[in-house]
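Study this fold:
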Amino acid sequence: MSLQTSHSGNILVVDDSPDNVFLIQTILEGEGYTVYTAENGFLALEQLQAYPCDLVLLDLMMPGMDGYEVTRRIRGEMQLQQYIPILLITAHDAPNVAQGLDLGADDFIRKPVTMDELLARVRSLLRLKFIMDERDEIARQREDFVSRLTHDLRTPLVAADRMLSLLQQGALGDLSPQMQEVITIMARSNINLLTMVNTLLEVYRFEAGRKTLAFQPVNINQLLHEVVGELSPLAQAKSLPIHLDCGEPSNTSIVTGDRLELHRLFTNLISNAIKFTESGSVNIRCQNQILNQQKHNPESNFPDNIGEYITVEIADTGAGIPPEEQATLFERFRQGNHKISGSGLGLYLSRRIVEAHQGNIQVNSELGKGSVFTVSLPLQK
């Protein structure tokens, strides 16, 4: 990694005092920096939105919008592509700068500024800026590489799946029982690998902001009936009954969402319940509820407003999940300490899908008694 240490960079100086601006501009331009100026916070935000810079020198005490508010907006409301360090400038008798640092500023310097201290702090923050830019670029390249690699892997896997299916159907001649068993194992392993590749591809689409959702009215009851029907053979192979208590599809269970992604969500959760349950049953229940974060559970991550939601509970009678694993279950590459391994991405992708629909997903589990995954999605208004 090469660090940029030459005196270059675009710096925005924000101060309502022309004398202060002239002094700082003279010092910085004398060192080879390109300097832009703004006389108040409003103009600074407009300029940052149009022409992002490498560093902001921001006076704390300004009329109309002070440096605290400018810092808060830069860090909170502005969707900047790259990180911009903020150096606060404060007078000796100004209030404590801790508030500005808490809001996201990176450093501060007191007036009257001295040339050596100003240049040292500017160089330090620009080094931070260039390091973070290179780190972000490496991360983008890595994500793009994984996305491209995953996409390219799908082609041979899909081809292999179709060829193995033809072999199983006898299209290329009769197979001996031993060959049938081998082909079945190969087909199952290929499907597992294809599923993992597809999941990884979807995860990176979400994280790269390349996932486009097609929102439309979706009947959750009807969708759950379809998913259960598709997964019934898996449950039957383990002699596990699936109990679906959602009633008949009706207009009271309609959400606005992407049907394909919601199908992926419930397929993942129900198939997990089947996979991790050796005996007992899988029970799915849904109901409409009025949810309010403040009233029901202040520690939960339900949306912070009152609204009508459809809540889907998927309960199994498996081994359960230890409490220490439940806290990180929906994070990337988090695999439980169970005998059946996975990619550690399925539940993370499920969370991303639920959040994209302004919903919530939670887990409640007890060792030896099973787990309950609860999905809440806002009903169509």
